[in-house]
Amino acid sequence: MSLWFSATRYYMACLPGCLKQVKMVQLIMSFIVTLGLNTKVVRNIQSLSAKEINDYNIDMIVMSPPCQPFTRVGLKRDISDNRTCSLIHLLNIFPSLGKQWKYLVVENVKGFERSEACQQLIQILEDLDFCYQQFILSPSMFSIPNTRHRYYIIAKRRPLYFNFPLQPHVMESLPFPLHNICSFTVAAYEKMSALNLKHKSLVQGSQMTCEGTCYSLNHILETDKPPEYFEQFSVPDRVLTKHAWLLDIVGPNSTRSCCFTKAYGHYVEGTGSVFSPALPHVIASAYEQSRSHDPGSSGQLELLRGLGIRYFTHREVARLMCFPDQSFNLPSDVTIRQAYRLLGNSINVHITALLILLMTAGDSTVCSSDTQP
Q1: For labelling alongside 313, which of 213, 229, 360, 364 has CA 20 to 30 A away?
Q2: Per the record, GO CC terms (predicted)?
């Protein structure tokens, strides 16, 4: 079994294989994501004890602690921020967990690697005889048209070890390329390449062999909805009149989008890209013509309205985060703004899956002292 912690929830699952149980911890929201599974428990992470976790016979812990104490635009209060209390609580009980706990995955914002919290985490892992590797990865590295650089650490308890040379620094790519499936002999690596191929195969033509090339956004757009459905996602006039020049506008043929945060749809700058069906030269022309009008005038507003600029739907954002359409649905009483907050605080499912496969590869082998740093 594995235990999944995040800022607002944790999941219990059976890996590898299908999710069999789900338990969710809710710290802030009054609603939770529905995965179609049976068991849900609402409680605070800080109420968990080592005995309780041991009783579940947990062998993997995956967690995404609150990122606000470490963000580049925040106060960076680190462990003095009360929002790290749940993380510190878990670090304090890790030494009391049984030897059946073998794996750890942690995700957070870029910058977490320079925090005191991260140093405490690494020190505890070393004290508990875990070997580990740190990464800074983004979905755009895996053909997904979204930039979301995040810190990851994967760790496993000796005598288990990794089937690639560990590096003392934070790696900014996987230890091997995924675009050539024939280059892998280990079954887990083949699974990683096959998993990534579903994204890579969407890249057009000869670009498919180029690492870091992304597919176009038209692959994640909701095309089965009537036009009136998208009216609720239109960028409001007040934003067009005051902040139009701050918008990052992308279209169906774009192969990029900016990181979506929990403030998407509420704040403008740095919270995520917006969508326009217009061609790039049409957008550029409209913006150029609007400069001849008084700021906020009706003439300027009409030009910008004509571009049909809207926010990406929560389903489209979820697709960029690699949540599957078939098994991921939000409860009907979750508002659009709440959905953006949940997704902005979430993880990229594809990268996490790749790292879990990477981490568990060769888990039946034994670590020797001359192969580990």
Answers
A1: 213
A2: nucleus
